[in-house]
Amino acid sequence: MRKIDLNNFQVATSETARDINSRILLNFVRKHQPISRADLMRQSGLQRSTVSVITEQLIAEGWLREGAVGLLPRGRRPTFLHLNENRAGIFGINIQPYTTDIGLANLSGHFLAQETISTPRTSAIFVTKFSSRVHKYMKQHPMMAYEGIGVGLPGRVDLSSQKFIFAPNLGWHAADLKGQLENATGLPVSMENAANACALSEFWFGKHPEGVRNLVVVTVSEGIGVGMILNGQLVRGVSGLAGEFGHVTIDEDGPQCGCGNKGCWEVFASNQAAVRYYNEEGHGKNSVRTFAEILARARQGDPLAARTLERMAKYLGKGIAMLVMGLAPDIIVVVGDVTHVWDKVHPVILDVVRRWASTHPAVKIMASGPASQPRLRGIIALVLQKCFGAPTVA
């Protein structure tokens, strides 16, 4: 039961029911295409006349298209409906400290174009580089309308100003990136932190049961981020800073963190932490600079790399146990390069969680494959949910 917020509500109008029903049918088509009008009626429970009127409207507006005609032994042959995937395009930007991924996707979240560039030193340089690519892609796909741009950041975004205000690993000063991008491209911009974007990706595109409503994503890279979808809603908090579990202190005598505190979870369980472990135990001999080198050496049978990954996994498990105990989600999904050695780290994580969070053994802890591109695809979902998400009423 959700309490009505009398300071922030939207009253129902004569169009509200049709808007809700339209989005329900649009999502049924998206999920089960190709699908007939008769199947839409059966699955949605709506009357035949309602389904007919709404689908004709969605076809006229370009959201749906008709496809093949089905075969039946008798009666009227059904015409199958499909989502008109190329009706609109969405630009996605996944900004990371060293590289930035750029993609153009259609309404199904399939990428039509992608590239990776070095992350510029300042947001102003980035806006110039990205806007030129947007105009290039728009010329290459002139028949598409464009719904907007989604931006994923390795930090937090203030909900009211839409400025990024906490990105210790990026090095950019807080700026009106949203306004700059909108002025340079002429498209609406939505911004979100990377962990929340990954949570949206799993919620909209992940292969999870339809009934999953409580899902937590842990992103492991230079730092650690947590995105939370609880009761089907992305949790941002009052300021947009909800989910900063990576900066919860687990040892006040621990190493200095980029946020200014000491002993945060991410200084023990991130990729950078693993690099530190390896070099400290190796006493500078055959040192590594990146987490990718540790992964490569682990595959080659390097015992120091194996011990490093085990140590990292134990700290990941301690933090995940905190999430299990505090949030009791259905699923926790780990995102990042560490999933390349999931067969090695997963048993360690599970062992720690079982010992530290024994009251919630039913939580499923799994890896998101790197091929799913959760950060970039989640940014696409950020824009797509404006078309397919439930409308706000009351």
- Determine the N-to-C terminus distance: 12 Å
Q: Globular, elongated, flat, extended or rod-shaped: what is the shape?
A: globular
Strand-and-helix sequence, N→C? HHHEEEEEHEEEHEHEEEHHHHEHEH
**Helix fraction by DSSP (H/I, runs of at least 4):** 25-40%
Major pleated sheet: 5 strands, mixed
Strand sequence of the main sheet, in spatial order? 5-4-3-6-9
Total beta strands: 14
Measured by DSSP, the beta-strand proportion falls in 15-25%
Arithmetic mean of pLDDT: 86
What would you report as the Rg, rounded to the nearest angstrom?
23 Å
Helical segment count:
12
The low-pLDDT segments are none
Structural description of this entry:
The two termini are 12 Å apart. The chain has twelve helices and 14 strands. The mean pLDDT is 86. It has a five-stranded mixed β-sheet, sandwiched between helices. It has a five-stranded mixed β-sheet with strand order 12-11-10-13-14, sandwiched between helices. The protein has 394 residues and is an alpha/beta fold. It is 40% helix and 20% strand. The chain has helices at 16-32, 37-44, 48-60, 123-140, 177-185, 194-205, 266-269, 271-281, 291-299, 303-327, 342-356, 374-388; strands at 64-69, 79-83, 88-95, 99-105, 111-118, 145-153, 156-157, 164-166, 189-193, 215-220, 224-230, 233-234, 331-336, 364-367.
Question: Care to give the gist of this entry?
Answer:
The protein has helices spanning 16-32, 37-44, 48-60, 123-140, 177-185, 194-205, 266-269, 271-281, 291-299, 303-327, 342-356, 374-388, and strands at 64-69, 79-83, 88-95, 99-105, 111-118, 145-153, 156-157, 164-166, 189-193, 215-220, 224-230, 233-234, 331-336, 364-367. By secondary structure, it is an alpha/beta fold.
